[in-house]
């Protein structure tokens, strides 16, 4: 039985129309005068803090706490503006999945496992009315390495449950090979969805426990009970 479900955000719960990626580029332009910092970088499944380090390195700057906080202070303002301007959407079936989970008799704890910093996660999900569905999670400001964020989210889930938890009682839902890998890092079950930057065929070689085109294709009950 699944007692903890951890959701990725981008490409799993929502598609923000590139709001996050664009905010990265615009912030590097505004704060460091370096719009080229993000050119050619793959954002999918990465953590915000790892991306900031990579971009800073590319423009010859050290990843100091000052540079990182200079970046994120502006990033959240620009992200919010982009979320208002760009057309995005809730991924097919995601909202129904949350409702389905919430209505399970012994409902699992429901949290986030994302590379977004917490404030970025909040802005993204709030603009689609989904932030209030989550009371805890592991975020990009908890760690630079997604596998470590998974460990943080797992531990917070244990604290909420107030009991010990086995890896196979945890379900990680995500849209990239990075999500599958971080689920494996905590010995969780993994549900991979083809609603982000990777097709079902591209995700196939990574052997998630379940692989579906979108969350309409599988019910929470069929996995969690
Ligand atoms: Mg994602």
Describe the protein in words.
The structure is a single chain. By secondary structure, this protein is an alpha/beta fold. It has 2 domains: 4-16 and 89-224, 3-Layer(aba) Sandwich (Rossmann fold), CATH 3.40.50; 19-85, DNA polymerase, domain 1 (Orthogonal Bundle), CATH 1.10.150. Helices cover 44% and strands 12% of the residues. It has helices at residues 19-32, 48-58, 65-85, 94-102, 118-126, 146-161, 177-185, 200-203, 220-224, and strands at residues 4-7, 14-15, 89-90, 109-113, 137-138, 170-174, 189-193, 210-212. Helix 8 (200-203) links the parallel strand 7 (189-193) and strand 8. Bound molecules: magnesium ion.
Residue-averaged pLDDT, rounded?
A: 97
Total strand segments? 8
Text of the CATH class of the largest domain: Alpha Beta
The domain count comes to 2
User: What are the segments in which pLDDT stays under 50 over at least 5 consecutive residues?
Assistant: none
Brief summary:
With 225 residues, the protein is α/β, with parallel strands linked by helices.
Question: Notable features of this structure?
Answer:
Rossmann fold; two-stranded antiparallel ribbon; alpha/beta; 2 domains; 9 helices; 225 residues; 8 strands; 44% helix; binds magnesium ion; globular; six-stranded parallel β-sheet; DNA polymerase, domain 1
């Amino acid at each position: 039985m699944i007692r903890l479900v951890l959701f990725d955000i981008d490409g799993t719960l929502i598609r923000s129309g590139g709001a996050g990626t664009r905010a990265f580029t615009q912030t590097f332009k505004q704060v460091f005068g370096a719009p080229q910092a993000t050119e050619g970088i793959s954002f999918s499944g990465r953590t915000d803090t790892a991306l900031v380090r990579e971009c800073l390195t590319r423009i010859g700057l050290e990843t100091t706490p000052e540079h990182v906080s200079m970046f994120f202070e502006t990033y959240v303002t620009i992200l919010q503006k982009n979320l208002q301007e760009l057309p995005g959407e809730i991924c097919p079936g995601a909202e129904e999945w949350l409702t389905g989970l919430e209505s399970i008799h012994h409902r699992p704890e429901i949290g986030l496992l994302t590379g977004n910093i917490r404030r970025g996660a909040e802005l993204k999900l709030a603009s689609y009315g989904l932030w209030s569905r989550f009371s805890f999670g592991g975020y990009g400001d908890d760690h630079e390495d997604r596998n470590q964020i998974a460990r943080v989210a797992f531990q917070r889930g244990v604290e909420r449950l107030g009991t010990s938890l086995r890896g196979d009682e945890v379900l990680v839902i995500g849209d990239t090979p990075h999500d599958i890998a971080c689920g494996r890092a905590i010995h969780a079950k993994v549900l991979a969805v083809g609603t982000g930057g990777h097709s079902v065929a591209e995700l196939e070689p990574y052997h998630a426990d379940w692989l579906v085109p979108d969350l309409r294709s599988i019910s929470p009950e069929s996995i969690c009970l």
